[in-house]
Design goal:
This protein has 4 helices and no strands. It has one domain (about 1-60): Arc Repressor Mutant, CATH 1.10.1220. It is elongated and about 60 Å long. It has helices at about 10-20, 25-45, 45-55, 70-80. It is mainly alpha-helical.
């Protein structure tokens, strides 16, 4: 392993210590797990794959409304009002 030094806010350090104690783990192990998670998230789906998925999803869902492009703001406002 490679030793490194990081700076945390006071709140981050306190929360991390409490979480480590609750999980019966070390702060260092939680940080390693967080780094692993970040690496998996960033490398699991690259930009080209995200673009391919977005293009594949386009047009696959139907609202049943014929004027959705012209009235999208109204429909959105109605949806938020409930």
């Amino acid at each position: 392993m490679i030793r490194t030094q990081i700076q945390l806010t006071e709140a981050q350090a306190q929360t991390l210590k409490a979480l480590a104690a609750a999980r019966q783990s070390s702060v260092a192990e939680l940080i390693r797990q967080g780094v692993d998670h970040l690496i998996r998230q960033s490398s699991s789906v690259d930009i080209a794959e995200r673009r391919r998925r977005a293009i594949a999803a386009a047009g696959r869902f139907h609202s049943g409304q014929l004027n959705i492009s012209a009235e999208h703001d109204r429909y959105l406002a109605e949806a938020y009002r409930g």
